[in-house]
Amino acid sequence: MHTNLNVHTAEKDPPVRRWLTAAALVGVALLAGACGSDPGEEAMGDGAAAGDTASDGRGDDGAGGELTGSIEIDGSSTVGPLTDAVAEEYAAEQPGVTVNLGISGSGGGFERFCGSGDTDISNASRPIKPEEADLCAGNGIEFIEVRVGTDALTMVTHPETDFVDCLTTEEVTTIFGPDDPATSWHQVRSDLPDVELAVFAPGADSGTYDFMVEDVLGVEGSRQDYNAAEDDNVIANGVIGTPESWGFFGFAYYQENADALKALAYDAGEGCVEPSVEAAQDDSYKMTRPLFIYVKQESLAAKAHVADFVTFYLDTVDAVIEDVGYIPAPDAELAEAEEKIAEALGSETRE
Amino acid sequence: MGLSTPAAASHRALADLRRPRGRRATEAAAHAVLLVATLAGIGFLAVLLADILRDGVPRLDLDFLISYSSRHPEQFGVLSSLTGTLSLMVLVALFSFPVGVGAALYLQEFAPDNRFTRLLQVNIANLAGVPSVVYGLLAAGVFVYFLGFGRSLFSGAMALSLLILPVIIVASREALRAVPTSIREAGLALGATPWQVTYRQVLPMAMPGVMTGTILALSRAIGEAAPVLVAGAVFSRRATNEPWKMGEAFAAMPVQIFDLVKRPQHAFQIEVAAAGIVVLLGALLLMNAVAIVLRNRYSRRW
Amino acid sequence: MSRGTARANPLARSSGRPGEKVVLGLLFACGALSIVTTVAIVAVLLVEGSAFFGSISLVEFVTDTRWQPFGEPGSAGFRVGIAPLVAGTLLVTGIGLVVAVPLGLGTAMYLSEYARPRARAILKPILEVLAGVPTVVLGFFALTFVTPLLQDIFGARTIDIYNAGSAGIVVGLMIVPTIASLSEDAMSAVPRELREAAYGVGATTRQVVARVVFPAALSGIVAAVILGMGRAIGETMIVSIAAGNLPTLTVMPGAQVQTMTAYIVQAVGGESARGSLTYQSIFAVGLVLFAMTLALNVVAQRVVRRFTQEYG
């Protein structure tokens, strides 16, 4: 071992000390910075006075781009990309406004929205539950429910599976439900061949799963022995790679893999309907779920940039929604939402 | 058992000497086996890297680094999450290095041999095995909610710092342990105080090993998605993260990459995600390079 | 990770100037922070976890063979036996160690005893860079490269699209740099005199490594392996992505499993409402995980202390 006792250099600072001192100084500086900027401190835009909010649509003040502040949004991972697309367009108009978007899930989103109250908008792929609404009420948080789009759930199978084109609700229950789940296609429908059925589907914690089990099938729970995937791309890959398989996910994932997958029509009791944008819009395809944003009234009133963003959202959503892979909400509902928002904003200016 | 002293080792070596046949073959075999072992691990991961580079490099350009996220794969950029990750790196290094080395110094050099010290050791070893997601839960419970820092860059940095602290401590302790006691004794004999000896003799000698441990730990921290996700990293935002804006919402590259791979569009899943990974690895390489330079400087001096 | 140096470490005995007491106090605080961290973790886990055990009996938790904590508690499909998750974790970790210990130690031995300085100077930084590959990336590597490879070798019937084997192998690869680097540091620290003595009586490199260096560095090596094992148990992303999310009580590497960590990730990102039994189960699993690693480390500490050697 080479030892080197530098007793004679005791007066000089070793390099280690210089680095440590520098680091400490930088650390102190950063801490000072942290104490200076609290979360939410930069949220106050230029519209703190309620009287500044426009009362009809976005009027002319959109083009100027002088709004500043941040908007906190969280919730469904399905609606998230849609809100993100709108935020992307909005950033071009109002670069001073930062949209912070999380995807904690519809439930997680409501928890923040109603519980800790730290989000301005909550994305949801289902309506708010009664207990969640109670939580909001209990914390004095008033909100407006806004329907922004539709997601069509699509059942898929391997393209070479030619013996089945359409499934009824009962048949889907046999495939995915909890009681005596089918292991062969023959058990699903007696005129189908006796070949092994491979199931690929979202896991029990996802909103898509909840929707299928609770809303479409109306059963309690599902079969337990399927290929459960958190990532819909894995479901797609599984179905693509496995003949005689069955899977389901959002329409966007079918569209992206349309040449490698075969979509199955769904018979909710009124005949087989294939999934498509048109069929979902005119409600003939029944396996659809509504997409919402829930807007905090207080944020709408107090923050001009939130009001501006929400109005922009309703104006722009139809232009971007198909890029993201969803289906536009019925026009009537969008118009109704616009009215609700305008009313909320208008009533504030009168005060 | 295998514990050896010079005497026992030479004894066994002599015994082996009496078996001349096949020794050269065994030697060559041993050498080959170990070389294969070394290259196998590296090789497997090299395949992975080659795959990523092939998919990601074509997509990489300056715009990718300075643009924000988009629903259009061609316009997508990682500016927000990249600045978030870089800021996290800085903050995590600033916090965990001094605290980690400090704790290691205490435990290895100054702590008395009593039950409390043993408790500390067991505790730190245990913390090294706690899953990264639990550190996210911890950061969420303590920093986001209890202390009220919210889903901020600071909370994310704390989640990662606490995650890698045990690793830094354990590795630093090993490095300190390797410094011969004679160094300390000599320093004290010449009249230096314990702290002087530690600071000017022991620590510099141990620095290369300390830096190794820190490099490994920081590399891991930067690539972790679970803790920052639970501590509140956003899915998307169109603003940059600077280290001094610790109260702001933040994005992080591993979370961004995780999201990209889950999107339906193939362009996102493959090219954009791979490009994002290349950027993240580039940031890691940069950090590693700085650390290696620092380590070599200290190695040469002492 | 040895102790017992207080007797050998002269610094612990002598007193310093008053200013230095402050420094020592600071160092102590750094060390004590680990206690604070543990207390905080336990607190966070206990707050919700104890609520879980208020509703679920410990017997059921330990003995039930199914883990299905989603849906309505009390319904037929709601089962909260943790055995499948523990089995999943142990299976993946076991496979990981089978891969990582030979590769990691082999690499360490090669780098420390056989490699020329130039080779070492190249390979060691490479190892460190590889240690930085994000686990998210490794997870997808396992799913998109290793799994198809295994399916080609063993057939798609034996290897599911999600399986413990792919995840285990990649987890093992992930901890190779950790084990290799730290073991190599431990081996490098073995004094040259020991090696020279052995070479002096005619030992070959292999004999020196096996009989002198390895035993002498054993405590550091065991520390490295334990650190690696701890990481394997706590690994979250690779298993989430590649091992699957279907809790299965099995020892088959080709089967889909769910580890305790993967369950936590799944449930945290899912739709469970705060205060629900599903939400509380996250923390119950966290407690079990924490207890497991604690037990592992206590045992390891005892083992390490027996193998420790000091070199003055």
Q: What's the count of strands of chain A?
A: 12
**Helicity of chain B, in percent?**
over 70%
Continuous helix count of chain A: 13
Shape of chain B: globular
CATH class of the largest domain in chain A: Alpha Beta
Overall number of domains of chain A:
2
Number of helices of chain B: 12
Number of domains of chain B: 1
Which stretches of chain B of 5+ consecutive residues score pLDDT under 50? none
Low-confidence stretches of chain A: 1-14, 32-62
Biggest sheet of chain B, open or closed, and with what strands and sense? Answer: none
- At CATH level 3, the topology of the largest domain in chain A is D-Maltodextrin-Binding Protein, domain 2
| CATH topology-level fold name of chain B | MetI-like fold
Q: What structural category do the secondary elements of chain B indicate?
A: mainly alpha
The CATH architecture of chain B: Orthogonal Bundle
Compute the average pLDDT of chain A. Answer: 81
- Can you tell me the CATH class of chain B? Mainly Alpha
Query: What is the gyration radius of chain B calculated from CA atoms?
Result: 24 Å
Please state the structural category of chain A: alpha/beta
Tell me about this structure.
The complex is a heterotrimer of chains A (351), B (302) and C (312). Chain A is α/β, with parallel strands linked by helices and 351 residues long. Chain A has 2 domains: 166 residues, D-Maltodextrin-Binding Protein, domain 2 (3-Layer(aba) Sandwich); 137 residues, D-Maltodextrin-Binding Protein, domain 2, CATH 3.40.190. Chain A contains 13 helices and 12 strands. In chain A, strands 1, 2, 3, 4, 5, 6, 7, 8, 9, 10, 11 and 12 form a 12-stranded mixed sheet that branches. Chain A is elongated and about 65 Å long. The N terminus of chain A is likely disordered. With 312 residues, chain C is mostly helical. Chain C is 72% helix and 1% strand. A two-stranded antiparallel ribbon of chain C has the order 1-2. The N terminus of chain C is likely disordered. Chains A and C meet through helix 3, strand 7 and helix 8 of A and loops of C.
